[in-house]
Amino acid sequence: MRDILTDLIRWQNEGKSIALATVVQTWGSSPRKAGSKMAVTFDGEVTGSVSGGCVENAVVEAALDVLDSGETQLLHFGVADETAWGVGLACGGSIDILVKPINTKFFKELQSVLENEQSAMTVTVVRGSEKLMGCEILIRDNDTVVEIFGNDWDNKVLTLAQATLSQGITRRVILNEDTEVFIESILPSPTLIVVGGVHIAVTLVSLAKMLGYQTILIDPRKAWGNMERFPNVDSLIQSWPEDAFKQVKITRSTAITMLTHDPKLDDPALKVALSSQAFYIGALGSKTTNAKRCERLLNDGLSEAQLSHLHAPIGLDIGAQTPEEIALAIMSEVVQANRKQNQIEVKNEAKPVPSP
């Protein structure tokens, strides 16, 4: 949703009617994963993507019908290998897409969650009675619920949704023979925390920004950590790690890199990072340097299990030599770790619908 949020807000402010298309399940190969979204206005403006080929055209037509009728539609596209590329479903995949009008009240609540970088989940009925089809629930991570379905399985849905958010996954679930829901976790934007304003960090912050990460630089040494060296960083904290990490929120969407080579900075930061739910933690240094680092951390109370989450030496082995190449190797490993996390976070628990 974040990739189309700006357009949605603008269209809402302009008073336009909007239909939202969401990929709720894929089978085989598909260029867009479950949760991918595209929005269409009544006058034919489009933002986002749900496939990549002429499936998009069919979805736009369905969206216009939905805006005209006000009725939610569940679309199914399934193709053979020889026609797969033509409709954006490489290698013969199939895909289910829910198309529904945007509810202004519900969108405002969702917008608040996204803009405030909160965790939440949405539950949407993708198959059910005419009354229930397209109904939505928004549950914030503090258990605040916006709307309920009003059925005897409300508690079941809430339990499923809370379990889904705790795992950070997205899934489609069959509630009974007549009803299915799509449960989607909403997590904060990916964030990269860099400890140490060294030369590598200058390029690393730029690469992270380019890839859509929020960036935080921590360095108490003002000669290294200052806005002149890092004009584009989102947040600059000129404090020692023990104090600096009290000012940031570490989530499962956070990556943390230690670049100072100085145990006085790296070790306290690693003690915090390795006790957190950050999806990536890396530290600069050779194998020998890392062995000494791990020995210090073990003596300081960390466990072998915690140290197993540390990427050190940091970065993918691409033969990097210059600071810029090292930054590329680090950011590549961060992206790889994030993608691996996402791959295990999408669960499909409904069976595919045969192509007509």
Notes on the structure:
The chain is of the alpha/beta class. It has three domains: 1-102, no CATH class; 104-187, no CATH class; 191-341, NAD(P)-binding Rossmann-like Domain (Rossmann fold, 3-Layer(aba) Sandwich), CATH 3.40.50.720. The protein contains eleven helices and 17 strands. It has helices at 5-13, 55-69, 81-84, 104-115, 154-167, 199-210, 241-244, 263-273, 287-299, 304-307, 323-343, and strands at 18-27, 37-41, 46-48, 73-78, 94-101, 120-127, 136-140, 145-146, 170-176, 179-186, 191-195, 214-218, 235-237, 254-258, 280-283, 310-311, 346-348. The protein has a six-stranded mixed sheet with strand order 8-7-6-10-9-17, sandwiched between helices. The protein has a six-stranded parallel sheet with strand order 13-12-11-14-15-16, with helices on both faces. A hairpin with a 4-residue loop joins strand 2 and strand 3 (46-48). Helix 6 packs across helix 11. It is elongated, with a radius of gyration of 23 Å.
